Amino acid sequence: MHVEGDALQTAVLRDGCLDEFFMERSGGGSLVGNVYKGRVVNVLPGMEAAFVDIGLGKNAFLYIDDMLHPHADKQPKQKPAVAEIARPGQELVVQVVKDPLGGKGARVTTHFNLAGRWLVYMPSAGYVGISKRIDSEAERERLRLLGEQLRLEDEGIIMRTAAEGEGEESLDGDVGKLRELWRAVEGRAAEVKAPALLHCEAGLMHRVVRDSLMLDIDELWIDSPSRFDEASKLLSDMTPKLKERLRLYESEGRGGLFQSFGVSAQIEEAFSKRIPMNNGGYLIWEETEALTVIDVNTGKYTGTNNLEDTVFRTNLEAAALIARLLRVRDVGGIIIIDFIDMQQEDSKSKILTKMIDEVRRDGTKCTIVGWTKLGLMELTRKKARENAISQMGEVCKTCGQSS
User: What is the mean pLDDT of residues 322-331?
Assistant: First the structure.
């Protein structure tokens, strides 16, 4: 973690390779997870949605699906008209699921969830879910049974990947803290007038410690004494086992933290328009407001005497690189990949399988739609927050990109 002025930058390295990158400025962090008491401003039957004033510059957008019961089995068979559920002037509690981006206001929901270290607490979902990244069926069943024991009445629980192998005491402690927090939110909602902030989601430091630090981490380096103390307290509370792996980086005579670990050069390369591959090929990366387009090229790579094999190997490396860069750049929305044309259906099938396997490591929901009729690969990735580069507000000294 690197602190520069009012910005906290976090880079996750796996085997020395940049795997994720986050940035947040003090006072300018994400609103995702915040809970507000809002007031319905107007209802849009044609869009099956309502605009809600939550006290920000732009009204928030609330879809009808986000007003119905969070458990699909408990929703009405016939979806009601939005005017039957929401009316102008109505006060309701909502949670931000997507930051205001561009000219759009925040997207909100009434499907509340509060994230803990091991699990996600949902006050009224009425079911237990298990992270798809937990593969063991025996462990999934153990966690499901534990979740059923821990939840009360209509509560819902999602066991996070970090819950794998954790005991009942840890999980019960998480549920207790989150249940208490939700009751405090309800209490405040009953006392204040809309619009009002009821709960503020944790900042980047807290989220990184809570969401990204697993027991397989070797070291956590921070170059700010005050941030080091903050992380130390968070680890003591959430994951004491990891506290001994926390390190304070002192730059005197060694250069900056990101320079020392080779992060700066990797960020510059990752956010470039032309991104080289190890085999001599390269990607051309274009991002627009509507979608991201990635073009794969063989470049200097000539491979063997077999053209199909050369193309396949280039595409195979590109698939792994693209999946990683989607995390690093935190790309959201529609993504189109123009892989080099392959003649054999078996080759195309293997590239599709490779992409599916690679995006499974992504903490953000990423859906592989498949090959289009034009031979392009289409996928979508959930976008909730502004990515690191767009928050900089000026040309980045490291990568040359601007917001």
Answer: 94
